[in-house]
Amino acid sequence: MYFHDKRLQYPVQVTTPDPLFARQLQQAIGGIEGEIRVCLQYFFQAWGARAKDHKFRDMLLHTATEEIGHIEMLATAVALNLQNAPLTLQETAAQANPVVNAVMGGERPRHMVEGMLHQHLLSSGLAAMPVNSDGIPFDCSHIYASGNLAADMYANVTAEATGRTLAVRLYNAAHDPGMKDMLSFLIARDTMHQQQWLAAIEEMGGPAVLPIPDSFDQSLEKQEFSYVYMGTEASGMSPPEGRFNTGPSIDGKGTFSTMQSIPMGAEPMLGPARDGSGAQRKQMDDPSAP
Amino acid sequence: MYFHDKRLQYPVQVTTPDPLFARQLQQAIGGIEGEIRVCLQYFFQAWGARAKDHKFRDMLLHTATEEIGHIEMLATAVALNLQNAPLTLQETAAQANPVVNAVMGGERPRHMVEGMLHQHLLSSGLAAMPVNSDGIPFDCSHIYASGNLAADMYANVTAEATGRTLAVRLYNAAHDPGMKDMLSFLIARDTMHQQQWLAAIEEMGGPAVLPIPDSFDQSLEKQEFSYVYMGTEASGMSPPEGRFNTGPSIDGKGTFSTMQSIPMGAEPMLGPARDGSGAQRKQMDDPSAP
Amino acid sequence: MYFHDKRLQYPVQVTTPDPLFARQLQQAIGGIEGEIRVCLQYFFQAWGARAKDHKFRDMLLHTATEEIGHIEMLATAVALNLQNAPLTLQETAAQANPVVNAVMGGERPRHMVEGMLHQHLLSSGLAAMPVNSDGIPFDCSHIYASGNLAADMYANVTAEATGRTLAVRLYNAAHDPGMKDMLSFLIARDTMHQQQWLAAIEEMGGPAVLPIPDSFDQSLEKQEFSYVYMGTEASGMSPPEGRFNTGPSIDGKGTFSTMQSIPMGAEPMLGPARDGSGAQRKQMDDPSAP
Amino acid sequence: MYFHDKRLQYPVQVTTPDPLFARQLQQAIGGIEGEIRVCLQYFFQAWGARAKDHKFRDMLLHTATEEIGHIEMLATAVALNLQNAPLTLQETAAQANPVVNAVMGGERPRHMVEGMLHQHLLSSGLAAMPVNSDGIPFDCSHIYASGNLAADMYANVTAEATGRTLAVRLYNAAHDPGMKDMLSFLIARDTMHQQQWLAAIEEMGGPAVLPIPDSFDQSLEKQEFSYVYMGTEASGMSPPEGRFNTGPSIDGKGTFSTMQSIPMGAEPMLGPARDGSGAQRKQMDDPSAP
Amino acid sequence: MYFHDKRLQYPVQVTTPDPLFARQLQQAIGGIEGEIRVCLQYFFQAWGARAKDHKFRDMLLHTATEEIGHIEMLATAVALNLQNAPLTLQETAAQANPVVNAVMGGERPRHMVEGMLHQHLLSSGLAAMPVNSDGIPFDCSHIYASGNLAADMYANVTAEATGRTLAVRLYNAAHDPGMKDMLSFLIARDTMHQQQWLAAIEEMGGPAVLPIPDSFDQSLEKQEFSYVYMGTEASGMSPPEGRFNTGPSIDGKGTFSTMQSIPMGAEPMLGPARDGSGAQRKQMDDPSAP
Amino acid sequence: MYFHDKRLQYPVQVTTPDPLFARQLQQAIGGIEGEIRVCLQYFFQAWGARAKDHKFRDMLLHTATEEIGHIEMLATAVALNLQNAPLTLQETAAQANPVVNAVMGGERPRHMVEGMLHQHLLSSGLAAMPVNSDGIPFDCSHIYASGNLAADMYANVTAEATGRTLAVRLYNAAHDPGMKDMLSFLIARDTMHQQQWLAAIEEMGGPAVLPIPDSFDQSLEKQEFSYVYMGTEASGMSPPEGRFNTGPSIDGKGTFSTMQSIPMGAEPMLGPARDGSGAQRKQMDDPSAP
């Protein structure tokens, strides 16, 4: 179960509110690289973790709980950046408040509305929403929790790698010192979380976790295709050479090679449609039937 | 640009069609772990790959092109498994065709309809659809192509790890020898593809790709939090010990440590709602105003 | 604006309620081939119809309004079919009510729950929902209203062709005489609506509406590719011959021919990633920079 | 920021695991009436609450934090119910494990798979997912946080009213005493939460919060239509009489009355399509132009 | 069944077309607070209303039918506002038509395109779509019809409270007198509809409808938690005091109190993963097995 | 199975990169009228085509394969248009690079960011995504493959009619000669594809394919309603006259006529809610029960 403290994990301050930056921050809340995703992903992985020892469950719970606080920081940052957003379409620059002018350089507030996420103005009353920077709501199909802890750790590395890439892009786009400071903290946490999930893979055995899942008897797979890079260039030209098709495989269980793809199967034959299946008569066995 | 051959990459045969297995195979077509996802993911990563050398673009194109053929194999398998599915709800076992009986063991076809993906019967005319095993259409927000090739390679490892986990589960559930054979091929290809993307990370420099993106100057992040595992247990009890909070970090640039989370920020203060923002009067500065 | 009459457009009666058939009927309500789709599609086409004469707007409004009544009929049919659905998982056949037994042939009600749309039981209290037979909510991206009336008429033919195909499949699956009767009416209306939209195309000029949109000056398109069927078989083998690559084109403005696809463009060159774009250093111009 | 305790808020025990009930419980996790929804809804309302006093923000944070623990309880219950689910399609009853038999009464495990959420077996490795009982992922467009606290309180009453209705249906469907006990706790919490949000409306002023938002000057609305029930029966027959069209209005600011709807506007005239807008030539001003 | 009249329920006039306002109006059509939602919500509640007396069904049908006319008014308003939207990206202000200039104040039409919903230009041919102001299509999971009429009435109050809040925001943003007039009518209708659903709750018994559903025997819920506000502050500090935790409960069946949340359950124990479930070997009972 | 060639089907060149046009091109990639849709639609129709002769399957495969190359061309065009997009919000026009200035005419880059698809900057690193011009990901429910080849051909005509309409709008909006050239090729291919699917209908028998499906015995439909245009005007005024309600029907099997809609059914009677179904007590048979 869970507890809260009213204070934020790290300070969030905005000197020059900017509704366009509020929009960009939404990607870090409700984007697929965002914090709702990692928060729920780590929770669902923890709550469904099956294993004799509970270390992974425990490790996941700590970090999942930390991530709620990150959503909270970003939601606060969005609300602060929307504080002075224009509410009408026809205000002139002269009528606009000074803070709007600071960001807009004297242009008409209408321009600022053009760049806003319209739901910020119309649906949330100038507050954060669980959507991305183009207004798409987060959808929980992005919570990856496969029941295989090694696959999940790689999903987590991915989430933190795209998450830190996003945080870096936001840092580069930002102009407010408070926002840069907040992002420098979140970037550091993403650094750690990348490390943490890779360390977990190491703790599980490193390359020995491969191929994932390691509980399937490899003698049952068609092993002649298990370490072969297949080229599909129509001209038959060889694919580029690289670590991915030369030398021992990463799991140490094979040797990489290359082959040109060729059809090993036949042309598929589905045969005629059945009576009563709603097809056209011509698709059926006896096209002349009523 | 692209070319095709009418034949399949690998043989697809079904001896005992089973509409319930057709439904399960859908997960490998339109599930988030499925083949539409990897196919389009590798294509979009290739088409957007920015770099001086084109090796990664080329490598991705070969594998993306191979994956179209995997969707094709699975779509064929679904259609073959649906060949004799019951079309009505009230047929008796006696009326049902022999192949249905082979799978059902003499029970009423109605049971088989109960287990089917209903869209197979009603929407596709007994053929594959780009949906998962519960009928949810694939949605392209799952095409991860971040513009950062290292992040993308981890996304690809994840896709192939969850993909092989799914293929193994389907292999275990399957009862038809043709289906087991087809899956043993797809499992082998997933083995290779896991290896391939990990090899690509090695080719990019291995741990040197970390933290992702490696183009952000780490002196700008709050480095005192970059290698710290944060505990959130309310009792203050220490988190479990593991590779993820002891020893050198995986990127070799820090040393893991542990600390208990504490609020470093203040309670957020958003202040009153603005006039004209659609809030309740009581949320505003002057609640007595009209 | 709109009016209603409490009575249904056509009688809806259910003698033997069947929750599995209730589930199948959902496809005709909230499926992409269903009635919510055509209803809203015709309304949005009407409300946005731009033209000097209002005939098409008027024609669309009549049919859109009729379709509300079809959703109503189907929603009523779903509710009637759910009337006696089992509410628990462990009732025995003996405890179950007689109507359940009539459909189930003495088996345990648990089987019937297994086949139900679970949201019928848990979310709607045994009534219709705006979802398809696998529970996916209808989403208005399927309302096709392009601003081009000819394109819209073809979209409508498609909707009624897939709609009638679905209605026929439901008719074939149904066992209740009341349901067969209701569907025989809806099938007839789909027959008419297919005719109606094709007649509208004829009224607009038949083949002269082509290519759609007809307001684009064809001399601006690369006309050497306007009536050519392109083959993509890797072996270079010719594509099948048919009406689609022989003889005069359907619009009478060209002659069909066939050619093998070849690359006319170059390999795309995106060049290195920019500094500050969140890519890996190796994707950039100067990989050695910090 | 947030903290956790490894223990559950309330005991969760399952004596007879039942994968069909696991599926039904999913509605309470990822359904629109479920716990992810209320949890994130209360958080986003709290994080965006604008007002001079912070009481509502604080009140929301406590309950939002409690709700994380409810998702956790339900996720645990789902995993426990899936513990012994069949993994294959062809196991016979004799091969099946005893617990499966306890629920299935000796029937083939295939039947149990037919009733399962297929993603439980194929995607999550027999654990909970953030989806509803038909497998649809939760999508954050259902997080209602309007920036108007009175509107939000009614949204919360709605969420807890549909949530308790769902919990009651699950209680009625359940057969395991541990599950009934867990649900009796969640039902009690839903009782409280309904009360709590209604009490919050009372604290804001009760009927004085109406009409929502109360910060819009009612003299600007067309007040002759503000308390009139409009009938749309084509026959002109009067609508039913009730509290909703007789007596003083609930907000005390008007008197209910009834009128038959009539068109007060004209037929809309959009005029011809513009050149270059992609319409058909016939929709344009000069249909004979090229 | 249903009928129409070509004329609008209320006049819709636009003097200065503004494509940015067209975009904002979309929220009132396809947003979750919009008119498609209430229209279909009231219809599905009516069509599924189970009760001995039909008053609620009848009441709902009248208002649902009225709402179709509201979508029609708004769709007309969007089309009129898009009448002169720029079709190209490079037109200069001098080339632009005078009406565009009236809104833009002499700036380049490109700016206007930047603020537009792009689908208005590219997909609908300058007409309304069933999407919100950021282009997200309406999705019918927002049609709340729970089978419990009291819960549904609260859902309707919520819909009209958020709907009126939105209409007020649009009124404040609007600059065209015709648009302000139309919105003043819609705001009045939202006032009435809020009243109407609250009156329906009063007619059902007022507080006696609580807790919803009132058909569940409250002695079966854990009543010691039914009227308790639970605090989750980690420091143990008491939650704020308010009507929601002091005095008699709103339903008159209990007395509010406050307690600090504590774990009453144990740490969940899922145990090892099963063989054949696709987990890692280390998650299983016998990690050394092949 | 499939092969590729690194070169593009047709040249793609961009002289003046424009991130706003990049955004508009996205509609042709991930919009419902776009190339991912037709590509996957033709593939799924081919892979599921049931018929004695394989001509349609073959025909579909060639064109599906061609369409992959169209997505590739457009993805390349998007990336090229994003090449110089501004990465920050506060750059001045003076700091901006010359190419940005060429498009912006000396205005602040901030304006350009306002018009961008934000995910281009934040999520894809300035590359194409499988989303539409407002950022909505493509979702595979738009892959129409009904199992009825005639219905599918009309779906394909629709896709190419809306697709060409979109391409024409993009051509009109474009300012770069390379983009106009690329679009002139894609428009030509859309011309052909419209023709091709209409030719396929002719090959199937032209009007004889109607009504779709033609395998349903028309004597089973309520034929008195099969060729009747139904008017719904409340005043009883006749609907407009046109080809759609006069003369022989298009399929030659009936004669069009007109009638005013009237209710033929009764008012639906659902009866009271059942005990244990979660309704309010008042909806049940015995409201006084506990």
Automatic annotation (TrEMBL), chains A, B, C, D, E, F:
Highest taxon in the source lineage: Bacteria
Gene3D superfamilies to which the protein is assigned, alphabetical: 1.20.1260.10
Chain ranges passing through the membrane: none
CDD domains referenced in this protein's UniProt entry, alphabetically: Mn_catalase (cd01051)
Region of interest called Disordered, as start-end residue ranges on this chain: 250-290
InterPro entries: Ferritin-like, Ferritin-like_SF, Mn_catalase, Mn_catalase_dom
Similarity field: Belongs to the manganese catalase family.
Protein name as catalogued: Manganese catalase family protein
Organism: Teichococcus aerophilus
